Amino acid sequence: MKNTTVYNCSVIEMDKHHSDVGNITVIENNNKDIPFDVQRTYYLYDVPGGEERGGHAHRELQQLIVAASGSFDVMLDDGNVKRTVTLNRPYQGLLVVPGLWRELNNFSSGSVCLVLASHKYNETDYIRNYEDFLSYKR
Ligand code: TYD
Fold first, then answer.
1. Cα 44 from Cα 68, distance rounded (Å)
2. How many CB atoms lie within 10 A of CB 51?
3. For a surface tag, which of 9, 94, 100, 131 has the fewest beta carbons within 10 Å of its beta carbon?
4. Nearest to 12 by CA among 46, 36, 45, 39
């Protein structure tokens, strides 16, 4: 999707069930918790300090990015505006619309980046070159 902007992304607060023995947050395919059905879940962990992940855009994929543990920054770029969001709560998630360049960095030690995605893995959905991304958005 070409016409999306960083302002189409938002941090959502998921439900959190408290108890004396810990918390639990649930996300279901119910057209209510998040605006897409989840086809794939993956997580990033053991990212060495100072390293960066991402560095690409998706043409159609929607994602919910959650700091399941620890913290990291997500830099979003629509070719015009850049916006950085820090994630550091397991009950908050960043909804990322298609058509945005993203870079993830500043991973805290032991952090886990959980990603819920709207489609199965498809390399042809990726734009991995920044100049190609800018041409796509023009
Ligand atoms: P990539 O999405 O480029 O990683 P990141 O954005 O976190 O830096 O994926 C890294 C590698 O993992 C890539 O070569 C393909 C593979 N991969 C899969 O096979 N399936 C998946 O669902 C994902 C996300 C990645």
1. 10
2. 11
3. 131
4. 36
Give the pLDDT confidence of 12-48 residue by residue, as tens digits. Answer: 999 999 999 999 999 999 999 999 999 999 999 999 9
7 lines ligand 1 (CB under 6 A): no
Cβ neighbour number for residue 138 with a 10 Å cutoff: 7
Amino acid occupying residue 19: S
| Residues with catalytic function | 56
Query: Residue 11 is encoded by which pair of tokens?
Result: 């941090």
In tens, the pLDDT along 64-119 reads: 999 999 999 999 999 999 999 999 999 999 999 999 999 999 999 999 999 999 99
For the chain, domain boundaries: 6-15+34-137
Rounded distance, CA 33 to CA 73, Å? 23
The residue count of the chain comes to 138
CATH class of 6-15+34-137: mainly beta
